[in-house]
Amino acid sequence: MAAFIVMTADSTEHPAQLRVKARTFFVSAGMLLANPLLRCLLAPTVDPRLILVQLAWSACFVLLGVAVGSGRMPPWLSGCAAGLVCITSLTAIIHFTGGLASPYFVTLVAGPLLLSMFSPDSRLPTLVSLGAMLISVSVLNVLAGVTPGTFLPQAAIFGFIGSIGLYAGRTYRQLGEAEKRAQQERLSALEQLAESERLRRRAERERAEVERLVIVGQLASGVAHEVNNPLAFVKSNLHYLEQELLGGGTPPEPAELRELLGETRHGVLRIQQIVSDLRRFSREGEAGTEQGSPAEAMEEARRLASVRLRGLGEVALDVSPGLPRVALGQRQLVQVLLNLLLNAADAVESALPARKARIVVRARRTPGGVRLEVEDNGPGISPEFMPRLFEPFFTTKPPGKGTGLGLALCREYVSRTGGTLNVENRPEGGARFILTLNETTKAASAA
């Protein structure tokens, strides 16, 4: 019967789960109420005792639904109560409809089976309903005047069939426990994967910071020279002004004074720019933006590289107007370009015979974004080194001059945003690094 569709309630379960289980009791109660109505419509005469039993059965299920939905009934109690209500009501119905000859007699054995199906998380409701079913079979046989020796085999068969519910419930619980263990193992694996990813990201940030500080270290000697030059004429101009204005000399003409102040201001701004560039480049933390301006990054990278180049040569910029912003963050874009510029400077410096460096940074718009090129007039890259150039910790520089991480990190930054970084030797001599980046609108739509 539909009234056997009951579920146990766990007081620790989520309210939504309790509502679903309570609704099961209410639906079963409604189906029990519909049964006597159909009897009244289809049968000319209806035994009022059957109607009373089904009404009482339905009322009990309503009460169980309320108790389950409020979470006040322990999980074992709702299943046991439902089983006892079902077996007791069925026993009464069978007795009123012919006893052992009743067409409902065989439904007794379905009680433990259905209860084990709908309350598999606990064996107690199934045991209670199995015991109640055997007692019901015995009572019905006694009322029918059958001797114990005659109905005991029948009770044994009913008990055997009902015990299948116990085995099925046990199997279901084992499957459920295995699924829980598998789920826990999956969650544990996901947690380990998340921790591994967190450690990987931290190691990546540390690698990036180390490489960035290595670059700052390479620039350190040039910084002193770049700062000392403007500082020298600032000091010289201030000393001259002090002698002329406070030493009793002839005050300078306004035009000369404006020229002196302009030179001084230019020197101070140059020092301020160098310090600002280095601080912005070397500070720790993630980049503040996920997009970058190629033109601004090229200018900043050239300023930073100038403290390394000094008299070695020059960096020329060839920038097309109206370049879009690209998907690579500004700070990382500066680091990529600066790394390529410093590598170019090292390559030209090691060239024989010695030559004046000519490094060109070129930027052009492409249909999907921006293409940047950094080319030098150095000796180029040996064909045997070309396949390994972007491998981590591979370097062609002498010990102490490189970590072998610079180009690997550059390619990693670029490829993460869907761009590419490649290298080739120029036909006229020297190397050319080709950087392609997606513009931000394209990257956003792809994501």
Question: Using DSSP, what is the number of strands?
Answer: 5
Mean pLDDT: 79
Distance between the termini: 54 Å
Structural class of the helices, strands and pairings?
alpha+beta
CATH class of the domain at 289-447: Alpha Beta
Strand content: 5-15%
Strand order of the largest sheet: 1-2-3-5-4
What descriptive keywords fit this protein?
single chain, 447 residues, alpha+beta, Heat Shock Protein 90, 64% helix, rod-shaped, disordered N terminus, disordered C terminus
Write structural notes for this entry.
The chain is of the alpha+beta class and 447 residues long. Among the domains are: 145 residues, no CATH class; 159 residues, Histidine kinase-like ATPase, C-terminal domain (Heat Shock Protein 90, 2-Layer Sandwich). It is built from 11 helices and 5 strands, in the order H-H-H-H-H-H-H-H-E-H-E-E-H-E-E-H. The N terminus and C terminus are likely disordered.
